[in-house]
Design a protein that fits this description.
Elements: E1 2-9, H1 10-15, E2 21-25, E3 31-37, H2 42-51, E4 55-59, E5 62-67, E6 70-76, E7 82-88, H3 92-121, E8 127-134, E9 140-146
Parallel strand pairs: 1-3
Antiparallel strand pairs: 1-7, 2-3, 4-5, 5-6, 6-7, 8-9
Length: 151
């Protein structure tokens, strides 16, 4: 089976008033779905795919991810919107499930990148990391102190 998903950035999806998943069939009979996502950065996408236990290959114009019996080829169009073409032992609900799992993993990658940037840039801004706490829902709370200020 072959399924293609168009991964709409959340902002584009909101403007287009798309809600959830929409699908249609192309002339070739291939199912094409549109799925809302926040994925933009190809390095974070590749890392997120690794987090979902995919074997990942990155090429200049695409990213390929292989799971047991399923292959997804991610490509970005001129507007920067990713699409994923799935082949193998997959149906539409499973393809959407995979993309949503990748989107969750992508969110964790974004969080890691932002935290790392904050940790690196804090000293230059006159801040010292005092504490870091991860909550049950994986939110991270950082407490910074202004260097030179009394605690």
């Amino acid at each position: 089976m072959s399924i293609s998903l168009v991964l709409l950035p959340l902002a584009v999806a909101a403007v287009a008033a798309a809600h959830g998943v929409t699908s249609r069939s192309e002339q070739e009979g291939r199912i094409v779905c549109e799925v809302q996502t926040r994925m933009r950065d190809e390095n974070l996408l590749a890392a997120a795919l690794h987090d979902t236990a995919a074997v990942v290959a990155v090429a200049p114009d695409s990213i390929t991810a292989d799971w047991a019996g399923v292959r997804a080829r991610f490509q970005r169009d001129e507007a920067g919107i990713w699409s994923a073409h799935f082949t193998g032992d997959i149906d539409e609900p499973r393809a959407v499930e995979v993309v949503r799992a990748v989107d969750v993993a992508y969110g964790r990658q974004v969080q890691r990148a932002v935290l790392e940037r904050l940790r690196q840039q804090a000293p230059a801004a006159g801040l010292r990391l005092e504490s870091e706490q991860v909550t049950e829902d994986d939110a991270v709370r950082l407490v910074f102190a202004v260097q030179g200020a009394r605690s």
